Amino acid sequence: METIKSRAEFERVFSRGKRYNDALLRIRVVPTSEGDLPKVAFVAPKRLGNAVYRNRCKRVLREAARACSLPRDGYDVILFSTDKTHDSSPERVATSLERLLERAGVVCG
Fold it and tell me: What UniProt keywords are attached to this protein's entry (predicted)?
């Protein structure tokens, strides 16, 4: 799974991407440039809690992303955890993620 790492990549997704919200997670999606590999990032803001709590949230997001076969061709996606992500199963988060991806118009890969 190719991940977004650089500040420039994050800023590109934030400035050009479109945001979609759900109770279990939020996503920001942007089409990739021609020839670029699709990438994904996992974010758990500090306001959610300590490092152990945030790492659990990111593990749940990563498992949900695998279940939804992210990253999908042609799109960069950033997944943000919410306060409900921690207590949810990866399967429930994957269902919410699929619903958000459909709203975003991201085609199945």
Answer: Endonuclease, Hydrolase, Nuclease, RNA-binding, tRNA processing
